[in-house]
Write a structure and sequence with these properties.
It comes from Streptococcus pseudoporcinus. This protein is of the alpha+beta class and 90 residues long. 19% of the residues lie in helices and 37% in strands. The mean pLDDT is 84.
Length: 90
């Protein structure tokens, strides 16, 4: 895995400026599926432009969707384990 750093100048205190590194990529677990299900972790790239505008961009190619489907299937299998007439297809 390649790790890149974006350097930004930030204000620290009233009068001093400091250079800080933003790690890239960063792993986050945003809420993207049902709250009862474990949220899939994803890689994101953090970008800062010259006007200090910041953005996060998904960097896992949509893998989180497959992880979410598997997490939902596992949740349903556990919750419905006593139901013999239900089959989970995921």
């Amino acid at each position: 895995m390649m790790v890149f750093h974006k350097t930004a100048t930030i204000k620290q205190g009233v009068a001093s400026l400091v250079k800080a590194k933003a790690p890239n990529p960063v792993t986050l677990r945003p809420y993207r599926t049902f709250a009862e299900v474990e949220q899939p972790a994803s890689q994101f790239i953090f970008r800062i432009n010259q006007r200090a505008e910041m953005a996060l961009f998904e960097a896992d190619g949509g893998k989180w969707r497959l992880d979410a489907i598997n997490n939902i299937a596992n949740f349903l299998k556990e919750e419905l384990a006593d139901q013999t007439n239900i089959t989970i297809l995921a």
